[in-house]
Amino acid sequence: MLRRNEILVLVLVLSSAACSSDVELADDAQLTRGAELLLPFKRDLKSALVSGLEEGPVSAIGVCKVQAPAIAERLSIDGVEMGRASHRLRNPANQGPAWIGGIMQDYLRSGSSRDPVAISLSGQRIGYAEPIVVQPLCLTCHGQALAPEVARHIEEAYPDDQATGFEIGDLRGVYWVEFPQKVE
User: Domain ranges in the chain?
Assistant: First the structure.
């Protein structure tokens, strides 16, 4: 895990596209590897959400709460860990690792740069993140105007929810994956 001062260095590195001795951007191969590892998580989560929404928005909320962590856990094997994180959490369990914070802040500051990022972490590990951008379907549970039943269910399940009020194109959070630098 990165310390606070390392996260600040990471933000500067990403903002200026310069490298530092403490934090380095990973190479293209690691960027590709991160995207490959994350793809099944994104695919399976989208499929589960679409199925949940077919049953209704309240069911989709359950998918995010129960199935999303289960999918991430199922795919987190052989030294690979993955999940979702956000600057405005609905579920506090989705905080994500410390290194995500600087990347997310960079996405928020840049507004238009939404390219995936791979960084070298301590312990011969790589961190990869890509943005989750609000799509029209997301507004059902994360938009500014929620159906009363959806709002009530979210309030019951997540009394400290911060994950509403989004518009199409907003940064909702990030998908992340952390993996060993040397893949066998």
Answer: 4-11+24-180
